[in-house]
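2024-03-11 09:14:02 DEBUG pipeline.ingest accepted 1 chain
2024-03-11 09:14:02 DEBUG pipeline.ingest length=579
2024-03-11 09:14:03 DEBUG pipeline.predict start
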Amino acid sequence: MGRLIFILFFLTATGTLAQQTPFERSNKKETATYTEVIHYYRSLAKTYPQAKLITYGPTDFGPSLQLLVLSKDKMFDPVAIRKSNKRILLINNGIHPGEPEGIDASMMLARDLLKENKLPKNVVICIIPVYNIDGSFNRSSTSRANQNGPIAYGFRGNSKNYDLNRDFIKTDSKNSQSFQEIFNTWQPEIFVDTHTSNGADYQYTMTLIPTHKDKLQPLLSTYLTETLVPSLYQEMEKKGYEMIPYVNSIGETPDQGITGFLESPRYSTGYATLHNTIGFMPETHMLKAFDKRVDATYKLLQTYIDVVARDAKLIGENRKKADEAVAMQQNFAIDWKLNKDEYSNLMFKGYAAKQKPSEVSGLDRLYYDRNEPYTREIKYWNTFEPSLTIGKPIAYLIPQAWTKVVELLKLNRVKVQQLGRDAVIPVEMYYINNYKTATRPFEGHYLHTAVKVNPTVQELPFYAGDYIVYVNQPANRYIVETLEPQAIDSFFNWNFFDAILGMKEHFSAYVFEDTAAELLKKDPALREKLEKEKAAKPEMAKDAEAQLDFIYKNSGYYEKTHTRYPIGRLLKDQHLTLK
């Protein structure tokens, strides 16, 4: 009998040990490697029929993105799941592998939900184990110089040195393309992307960036601000982790106040907003002990599951109504500014910020005195207003040459059709009047900003096989914010169309002199236009080349495609033959 009890105890202990994560086995000092994470999830999927590990597209590093799906009813078809009126929660880990709390917390949470039979019936949980697989293999203990553990961790950049949390629109990486496949296949109502913060010192272990309330579709925004976020704060405080909004200080320290974080679509949560998905970026505090950061992340993910299960019916109804409203929406904000006059007072638990002589330079340096904690009110600016709003066209017409644009639209559930025959179509075309370009590369691009356009209606030929995208879809925000060149993260701003900014033909001055003189003789209006330009710009009167260039660019010799944005806006509905 004693021998039998010993054997049962040994088997139980062995099974428990086998289900421990590398984080737990290391006395909570280490984060799991990619190989360990995938091995662990494969083991869970073999053990529990409510779990399935699904392989998706490749990454720049080679290995494919994996998705662990947890479904109480053993339902793993996303279409069937949506038809059964279940909510989908997507958790993304390791976009920055040096910020690995979500990797380890998700492993333990998945195990506990399965082992303790605590999966909710009305929520399917999808977990990307490690998104930046590339960076997770580039391990060290030094790349996060300000971070308190773990012993070793991955690197922020992927194998092409891209920060993947800037790649959701431009899609330079295979990682991003495969992520978008997952996101648009599963269409989550709630999305969580786990991170670790940089910045000031304060008392909180967990800070939170929700999808910005002013950018989110109003119905979803109301639920976010009035129900979802308050529930997360209340439940996390009960679990021992009081939270605060992400500490985005306006000055060197939080004492002067903080602002909300306006995530543009290059970021994961900004991208999610384009699809009426409520997104979150939890940021644990880098200086807190690693085990506490993992525990706070575990408890927050657990809270998301509980709240989504509680509000599943309402979340589903809101999402359906939001999709319908966006499909009918006429005007879209594509740029934003902070309202500096509107703020609230926020109780903040920080540490006294002081100065002392630096042991390096001898000059004064900032430090936070943890022996002087404080609780005081600070200002919180969190209202952003549209600075540019665009009325949508009936449709966009895209010449078939721009294949990457069309491929990304399709990847993001945009319905794209093709012309069945050649046609001359009246469309509004933009000429790019002005823009600024960064002097240094950002994420592999010389990013454009401050774009100004000159719209003009032209009758242009489009050809069989060219694409038409009607702006009457739930994906309208993705369509408008990528195709309108003035939008913050438009395809134009990410250099997709830079070829149009260069002239392909010009003139030799000694030949064009005679042509220009003849043009001025035959066209008094052109001569008058030149004289007005010279009067407005006195330096031009002394510059023969500038005068010739002006005449050239105001003549029939100047190429009409120079600076003309190639995507047309269809403003009046008309019958077009489609394939």
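2024-03-11 09:14:41 DEBUG pipeline.report Residues 344-385 form one domain.
2024-03-11 09:14:41 DEBUG pipeline.predict end
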